[in-house]
Amino acid sequence: MNVYDGQRMAELLGANGMTAAVDGADADLVVLNTCHIREKAAEKAYSEVGRLRREDGSKPLVALAGCVAQAEGGEAKRRSPMIDMVVGPQAYHRLPEMVAQAVRGGRPVDTDMPAISKFDAFPTRRRANPSSFLTIQEGCDKFCTYCVVPYTRGAEISRPEKDIVLEARELVDAGAREIVMLGQNVNAWSYDGRGFADLIRALADIDGLERIRYTTSHPMDMSDDLIAAHAEVAKLMPYLHLPVQSGSNRILKAMNRSHTAETYLAILEKMRAARPDIALSGDFIVGFPGETEEDFTATLNLVDEVGYASAYSFKYSPRPGTPAATMEDQIATEIMDDRLQRLQARIIAHQVAFNRASVGKETEVLIERRGKYPGQMIGKSPWLQSVHVETDATPGDILPVALTAAGPNSLTGALLTKAAA
Ligand code: 5AD
Ligand code: SF4
């Protein structure tokens, strides 16, 4: 989502007469888009800001944006005289106005979370990546006890369907072949009585749009209708990122996850019944307060049971203001390091197995960019694997390939027939 936000801020500033600096060091304005989800986010942001001072003592205009800006607010200006603007994730549309104020010597702060849509302020796009992000939903009402998102991104809010379809059409006209719908709880999207599966079907009707993906989902909002869409909508790619966080019901309860290992597995079973080839992905946190070796073993067992195609895993990071930060039995770093290593080894083993099992398949690859070698292009399989193909095709082409070899992080594909543009 920060990538999407960054692109939109750049487009908005572009529409207001600015151009991207070739070298960051020459920039008149630097926007630092920050994430607050884990680790020492605020400290990292301030040290990054400090580095923007030039050798001759001059400095660019500096805007602190994103969730650290949201969490720090006006305090950011007190902590660093380098910071001229503080702009939270719901206030990006005000950036040009804030820059104008800063040029006049002001130090504006905007961390409001208005219900009205910032999206209306963003300009029309002329160029889009073959695979383009589209934010359809923001915020979170789930309040997992470790997570800062409900505080920094605010309550769950869905964009109107007509705005989303309009933006999707605009992206397709500008070159997108695939749209990745984004939201902190993307599958909680609902508007005017329409649900997420309805939205998927509406996007599937757009000519020229060939692939639809979405991320990230909460198990609570995996409706039967959404699962059915995976069986019916050909453009919906066979990939699901469904974070579980832990395999231990005791920890899941302490996390306020509202699902158990069993209810999570039941959802995946239904999903596999609807779309047998679906690639599954997830998120895990190790070392949540009170996590025992037994709890952790339950997580390893769940990984084995699911057989993820890929997954993200993190060490628990206490976030100021969240309930878990003050829970007893915080876990020592060494224990977290050890568990993370063991979990990642297990995940990678499944990832390698998944990729190897793909070898021999004939499928389609959406070409996204050039590879390292002349004549080599890199694209994505329907299961979101990176595939290297020797071809003179260009980004945006969708090519029929045979998958011929697999490594842990990518596959090799051989072109089957001439490019179908
Ligand atoms: N510590 C570690 N990981 C976290 N995540 C969210 N909050 C924390 C935290 N405090 C992880 C979760 C989530 C992903 C986006 O980040 O796994 O799904
Ligand atoms: Fe954070 Fe996701 Fe839980 Fe919301 S559902 S509180 S974003 S981990």
UniProtKB/TrEMBL annotation:
<keyword id="KW-0963">Cytoplasm</keyword>
<dbReference type="InterPro" id="IPR006463">
    <property type="entry name" value="MiaB_methiolase"/>
</dbReference>
<keyword id="KW-0479">Metal-binding</keyword>
<comment type="subunit">
    <text>Monomer.</text>
</comment>
<dbReference type="Pfam" id="PF01938">
    <property type="entry name" value="TRAM"/>
</dbReference>
<keyword id="KW-0949">S-adenosyl-L-methionine</keyword>
<dbReference type="InterPro" id="IPR058240">
    <property type="entry name" value="rSAM_sf"/>
</dbReference>
<dbReference type="InterPro" id="IPR023404">
    <property type="entry name" value="rSAM_horseshoe"/>
</dbReference>
<keyword id="KW-0411">Iron-sulfur</keyword>
<dbReference type="InterPro" id="IPR038135">
    <property type="entry name" value="Methylthiotransferase_N_sf"/>
</dbReference>
<comment type="similarity">
    <text>Belongs to the methylthiotransferase family. MiaB subfamily.</text>
</comment>
<dbReference type="Pfam" id="PF00919">
    <property type="entry name" value="UPF0004"/>
</dbReference>
<feature type="binding site">
    <location>
        <position position="147"/>
    </location>
    <ligand>
        <name>[4Fe-4S] cluster</name>
    </ligand>
</feature>
<dbReference type="InterPro" id="IPR005839">
    <property type="entry name" value="Methylthiotransferase"/>
</dbReference>
<dbReference type="Pfam" id="PF04055">
    <property type="entry name" value="Radical_SAM"/>
</dbReference>
<protein>
    <recommendedName>
        <fullName>tRNA-2-methylthio-N(6)-dimethylallyladenosine synthase</fullName>
        <ecNumber>2.8.4.3</ecNumber>
    </recommendedName>
</protein>
<dbReference type="InterPro" id="IPR020612">
    <property type="entry name" value="Methylthiotransferase_CS"/>
</dbReference>
<dbReference type="InterPro" id="IPR006638">
    <property type="entry name" value="Elp3/MiaA/NifB-like_rSAM"/>
</dbReference>
<keyword id="KW-0408">Iron</keyword>
<dbReference type="GO" id="GO:0035597">
    <property type="term" value="F:tRNA-2-methylthio-N(6)-dimethylallyladenosine(37) synthase activity"/>
</dbReference>
<dbReference type="InterPro" id="IPR007197">
    <property type="entry name" value="rSAM"/>
</dbReference>
<feature type="domain" description="TRAM">
    <location>
        <begin position="356"/>
        <end position="417"/>
    </location>
</feature>
<feature type="domain" description="MTTase N-terminal">
    <location>
        <begin position="1"/>
        <end position="104"/>
    </location>
</feature>
<feature type="binding site">
    <location>
        <position position="140"/>
    </location>
    <ligand>
        <name>[4Fe-4S] cluster</name>
    </ligand>
</feature>
<keyword id="KW-0819">tRNA processing</keyword>
<dbReference type="InterPro" id="IPR002792">
    <property type="entry name" value="TRAM_dom"/>
</dbReference>
<comment type="function">
    <text>Catalyzes the methylthiolation of N6-(dimethylallyl)adenosine (i(6)A), leading to the formation of 2-methylthio-N6-(dimethylallyl)adenosine (ms(2)i(6)A) at position 37 in tRNAs that read codons beginning with uridine.</text>
</comment>
<dbReference type="InterPro" id="IPR013848">
    <property type="entry name" value="Methylthiotransferase_N"/>
</dbReference>
<keyword id="KW-0004">4Fe-4S</keyword>
<feature type="domain" description="Radical SAM core">
    <location>
        <begin position="126"/>
        <end position="353"/>
    </location>
</feature>
<feature type="binding site">
    <location>
        <position position="144"/>
    </location>
    <ligand>
        <name>[4Fe-4S] cluster</name>
    </ligand>
</feature>
<keyword id="KW-0808">Transferase</keyword>
